[in-house]
Design brief:
58% helix, alpha+beta, Butyryl-CoA Dehydrogenase, subunit A, domain 2, seven-stranded mixed beta sheet, Four Helix Bundle (Hemerythrin (Met), subunit A), Butyryl-CoA Dehydrogenase, subunit A, domain 3
């Protein structure tokens, strides 16, 4: 039986990044918890050993039970009866095993029953779980919603709800409605107050992942007469109080073990989370950033499984007297799959480290005033996290879909049959570039970091680092790509037309992403020679992609924009 952590040395490489020492020291507040909790680490090495051991437990559970249950869960799926969602039998077993292993509420403070993990090792666990069962990661990963309660709820709410999550109760975020998909400003589920101040929710939510969870975060319209985001607030709904029923479960293409529900709220009792009117403007934005990082991790987990399934089949399958991996066309395909996997994983963990840094400073600021240097560092990492989150989600999910597609292709006709895991994988992968904001919406979020120079500054910081002589050629190629990128951005900016910038946004964001991931793989190769192959393969792929977009921008006549309108 495989262990999905120990069988993948790339994970330990990313866990042991140099920035982790500062992250751990900030998270542990000079390891003061060691005086209160006998399982708390006493120093950096102790903390890293703790992460390693917990991830090994995650890997063992995923390589055994969860992966073994995945096919059965896919066939059985979730169902709906008497207003409740019913998990597949394998999903029930998975959740029970995770609870018993203490793998719920991983990032929550120890005083609430959590493991006090930084975001990075928690995201690594999500990466591993996703490889085992993409749909199950949706249920297990929604523990991340507890972050919103921790950040914005009052102390009484934290004390009542967070320990329940750490003990294994499930969560959901109820945002989408039949007439409000990505446009959350249009949310109309109504929140009203009784004379005694009790909040009541009435309306319908749709496409809610794990919608029959124990604890819900609900976006609702609390301000009478409003129609935009300023009239929305965030609420906590406790399933114990009743008032919400599952009308139906969507019959989906993939991730069938994760119930996607339509919910009917009828005078459901709820609690205001944080302040009124900030539901969308502040709280959902924070919630969605965390969710998008989670989907980026999910995408990497799917890419990992796609690559491994393709590689194993190509080594085993023989045609014309030899294994098909010996054919250059197949070998190239698998090499590119690995390069895309490694590039998206490098971007994922760079982003998670940036998220860790700024969130840790925000948390410390609740306890004491930050120094001027700390405030500057928080602002710096916040900007970088804001820039890389949509890129990691957008490009990571696209690579995930491409790898799932190529996995089927390597299998040939067999891949189209349900006898192989790649068929399920292909269906599961498709949603990653859609939910929690489509790839197109990630481009909308990312483009300002093209126009304001955030990506260029980050690229320059990578370019300024010292690399081994044997990697200099790859660095030179990235420098040439950067020149093409800068010229393309200047060309678009010179037109000075918003519609034209929007039209070219995807190309510029992808160019920046190709260069950033190229440098991140170069950094990995600089620290660990096992990444030289992927760094080289991805460098050639990035060259072609950057040149393609640069050529399109350089030779496009803005007057032709009308031809691309429906």
């Amino acid at each position: 039986m495989a262990n999905f952590y120990t069988d993948n040395p790339d994970l330990k490489h990313h866990l042991n990044h140099p920035l982790m020492q500062k992250i751990v020291e900030l998270k542990e507040r000079n390891f003061s918890d060691a005086e209160k909790f006998d399982y708390a680490p006493r120093n950096f090495e102790d903390a890293m050993d703790n992460y390693d051991k917990v991830l090994e437990i995650v890997g063992d559970l995923c390589g055994g039970l969860i992966a073994e249950n995945a096919e059965g869960v896919d066939h059985q799926g979730a169902s709906c009866a008497n207003g409740r969602a019913i998990y597949a039998d394998g999903t029930v077993d998975n959740l029970d095993a995770c609870r018993k292993a203490g793998l719920m509420g991983m990032s929550m403070p120890r005083r609430f029953g959590g493991l006090n993990f930084p975001i990075t090792p928690y995201i690594m666990a999500a990466d591993i779980v996703s490889r085992a069962d993409t749909g199950f990661e949706n249920l297990w990963g929604l523990q991340d919603c507890a972050e919103t309660i921790y950040e914005f709820a009052d102390e009484d709410q934290k004390a009542r709800f967070i320990p329940r999550v750490c003990e294994g109760e499930t969560m959901s975020m109820d945002l989408t409605e039949p007439d409000a998909g990505s446009d959350l400003q249009s949310v109309m589920l109504k929140a009203t107050q009784d004379e005694d101040g009790t909040w009541r929710l009435n309306g319908v939510k749709r496409f809610i992942t794990n919608g029959d969870s124990d604890i819900h975060l609900v976006l609702a319209r609390s301000e009478e007469g409003t129609k935009d985001g300023r009239g929305l607030s965030m609420f906590i709904y406790d399933k114990r109080d009743g008032g919400v029923n599952v009308r139906r479960i969507e019959n989906k293409m993939g991730i069938k073990g994760s119930p996607t529900c339509e919910l009917v709220y009828k005078n459901a009792k709820a609690e205001l989370c944080g302040n009124r009117r900030l539901g969308l403007i502040k709280y959902v934005m924070a919630l969605m950033n965390g969710a998008r990082l989670g989907i980026a991790a999910q995408s990497v987990g799917v890419s990992e499984l796609a690559y491994r399934e393709a590689l194993a089949y190509a080594k085993d399958r023989k045609q014309f007297g030899k294994a098909i991996i010996e054919f250059p066309a197949v070998a190239e395909m698998i090499s590119v799959m690995k390069a895309k996997l490694d590039a998206s994983r490098a971007l994922l963990y760079e982003c998670s480290r940036f998220v860790d840094m700024y969130k840790l400073y925000e948390d410390i600021a609740k306890e004491r005033s930050l120094t001027a240097d700390e405030r500057a560092e928080m602002k710096h990492y916040s900007k970088l996290a804001d820039a890389l989150t949509p890129m990691a989600k957008g490009m990571g999910s696209e690579y995930c879909n491409q790898n799932a597609y190529d996995c089927i292709q390597v299998h040939g006709g067999s891949g189209f049959m349900k006898d192989y895991a790649c068929e399920r994988l292909y269906r599961d992968a498709r949603i990653t570039s859609i939910y929690e904001g489509t790839t197109q919406l990630q481009v909308v979020a990312a483009i300002r970091h093209v126009t304001t120079g955030t990506y260029k500054a980050l690229i320059d910081s990578y370019a300024s680092q010292e690399y081994k002589p044997e990697l200099q050629g790859l660095k030179d190629n990235l420098a040439a790509m950067t020149e093409q990128y800068v010229k393309a951005v200047e060309t678009v900016a010179a037109v000075n037309d918003t519609a034209y910038t929007d039209f070219m946004a995807r190309r510029m964001v992808e160019m920046a992403g190709n260069i950033i991931m190229g440098y991140l793989l170069l950094n990995d190769a600089n620290r660990n020679e096992t990444f030289v192959k992927s760094a080289t393969v991805y460098n050639k792929l990035a060259q072609a992609e950057v040149a393609k977009h640069a050529d399109f921008i350089a030779n496009f006549n803005p007057a032709q924009l009308d031809f691309y309108k429906a």
